[in-house]
Every structure is written in structure tokens, then in C-alpha cells.
Amino acid sequence: MTDAQETAADSSLRTTGGAPPEDGGTSVTGAPNPEPGQEPIPLLEPREGVPPVIADADALAEAVAAFAAGSGPVAVDAERASGYRYGQRAYLVQLRREGAGTALIDPVACPDLSALGEALSGVEWVLHAATQDLPCLREIGMVPTRLFDTELAGRLAGFPRVGLGAMVEGVLGFVLEKGHSAVDWSTRPLPDPWLRYAALDVELLVDLRDALEKELDRQGKLDWARQEFDAIASAPPPEPRKDPWRRTSGMHKVRRRRQLAVVRELWQTRDRIAQRRDVSPGKVLSDAAIVEAALALPADVQALAASNGFGHRMGRRQLEQWQAAVDRAKALPEVQLPAPGQPVTGPPPPRAWADKDPAAAARLSAARAAVSALAEQLNMPQENLITPDTVRRVCWEPPKVVDAETVGAALAGYGARPWQVEQVTPVLVAALSA
Questions:
Q1: What count of other Cβ atoms lies within 10 Å of the Cβ of residue 324?
Q2: Of 62, 68, 180, 75, whose CA–CA distance to 110 is shortest?
Q3: Hey, how many other C-beta atoms are within 10 angstroms of the C-beta on 123?
Q4: 163 close to 169: Cβ distance less than 8 angstroms
Q5: Which phi and psi (to 5°) does residue 284 adopt?
Q6: pLDDT by residue (tens digit) across 74-85?
Q7: What is the CA angle 431-423-227, rounded to 5?
Q8: Model pTM?
């Protein structure tokens, strides 16, 4: 039995009250506390019921006061409309804190939640997969100074499945209904079943945090987790992606520079239309259609209409705007055509190492094997122990003198946390010295 499985089997952790229950007692949801081996209990209703959605300044002010007066960590979640709307803005924010209960806030009606963010400054925020929600929370004025990421905690603790539903079921013994995770959260009014689902997503988040903290402490990894959480909380907003059009699905088929220019022009045209209409770009034109047009280089609207993704239910005006984009790309002078690949800022792809630098390839092979063995020993994914990019960079350009001090400094220079430097440095020194 792994450490994580022992945690899941520990019935003292399976409570929604935040502390181990009395023997034979019930949780605050009214359900009997599950015993090891017992079927998990469906969690169907929030303990105080589904609260009304906060959609005006007065209700928001009351919520800010209530959460400021609450105690302990605050559970935070956000729902987006990925695949339906342009961008990744939040369309519902859920919070729960001891003494304040659960709040569901409509950030469309209340777009500035900076007062709530300020009221919770210094409070530990509990999120699941924090890096997914932090960008949209930042847009509405909510930025944590301290956080606990239950998904990352599960990874560090060695849980094989780290989705919220799997974690709540494995650790706390309750089943969360996940049927509404991919719905269009920009819908107004939000249906009652969706609101119930949203409230339940934060119902047990603090309880899960408490159980995972106990498990991380038992494994000697709690300080590691805190370093990871601090790094997430203090990280600046990510830089805008350079040439995002290059991430069009199917780009590997596009080889010639003129064809790349067509992809770029169609992608940028689609993006402007999607932003103006506030819809997902994929609903304007599919990636497959963009790549098809780039490969075909259609001469006119009729030829474009014969391409997959353009002829079906597309009006003449729409076809003309896409053909105009194709024509703009075809008219570009050679010097303005995009390069076949993006400039490489780091080491070359590992597949090229054997030809370019056989010694570096040997170092990388040894380092990968050593890191893999250490990750297995520590019962965590390799990418959480140290990023593959960091390993590649150190192996491609190792310090002139390979020892614990120089390798540790190199790892830190690439952003490794102190706990990672401590764990990984010895195995990398051995691999680089072999």
C-alpha cells in the first residue's frame, strides 16, 4: 500500500467537519462517516443549501464583510466558458470560509472584486489546480498572497489521480457530481443544477486541504509543498505567447513559408472576429479548415468553398473574407513570410543531440534515468520533482566544474526551488560526472 493509499484508507480523514469525528458519529452533512472499504457517499446538496447568486453591489458588500470576518482558509474556485466564449474570463466565482458559508458571485454583474481580494489578503486561499484559475481571478481583482493547491499537493503526495472528484472520493469518501464541468457558464440565468454543482466544488475543499497537509507532513514533504505554493503565489503574470498562430492544430503538415503565411493570416482574421463577437475562435473557423486552406492555396472563392470546413453552411460574404485573408498572404513579398520555425532560445530538441553533441546526449540519458529513479523513490511525477527543460539545459551546458555547489547554483538559476535543488543536485552531479 502506497503512502497515498494509506491516507485514502484512513477513515479519520473522511469528515466534512474539518476534524476527525467521534467513533460511530456522522459528518456535518448528516451522512455516516465511511469506513475503509465502504462505498463512497454521493454529496448531493451543500450543507446550508445553494446560496443566491451575488449580482449587485449591496450583496457583494455583505459578502465582503462576511468573508473578512470569517476564520481559517478560504476555498476559491472559478468557472469559465472555455469552448464557448473568447478568452478565459470567469463567469462564476465560488468561495467558502468558516463563519461565512458559501458565496456564488457573478463577475459579469460584479466585474470588480478587488474589495473581496483585499479583504482576503493574508488569508490562505485553497484552490484546485491554481494556475488554471489565477489568471481569470487576477482579471477581476482577486490575487492571493498565500495559497494551498490541492491538485499539486496530491501530485507531491503521490496520488495516482489528482482530479478534484478523485481526490475528494479517495481522501474524504464523498462523490462529487461532475456533469456540468464543460457547460457554457456564460449562460444567464444559470440553471439551479449548475449552481448546486458550483457550490459543491468548494464544499469540501478546505477539508481536503487539511487531510493533504497531514499526509504531506507524514511523508516529510510539507515544506516542499509550501515552497511550491509560494512560487505559484509570487509568480508574475505570464508573458503573452509569441506567435500564437503557430499553435494551430495540424501545423506539422504545413511546410512551406507561403503556406505558413496563410495560416497566420487566417488565424489572425479569425481571432479578430472571435474577439469582436465574444465567441470561441473554434466556433468561427476550425483549425482543420485553416490548415486545409493553407495547404491548398485556393485561387478564388469557388476553390476555397471546395475545401473542407468552408463550403458547408458558409455564406458568400464569409467566404470572401476568408479568401481575402488567403490573398493577402499570397501577395506578401518573400522577406515578410514567416520563418519555418520559431527561434530556439534553449537547447536543441533532444532527438538532435546524438548528432550535434554525443557527449551531451550521453549526459542527458544518464540524467533522465537518475531523475526518473529518484522521482519513483520519492513517489511523485518527474515533472514535479524537476522540470524536464531544466534537466536539458543543465545537461547541454553543464558548469565547467561539476560539483554540488555549481550544479545547485545552475538549478536555482533556472528557477528550481530549494527543496528541488537539495534533492536533485546529488543525482545530477553523478550523471554529469559519469
A1: 12
A2: 62
A3: 20
A4: no
A5: -85, -50
A6: 999 999 999 999
A7: 140
A8: 0.88
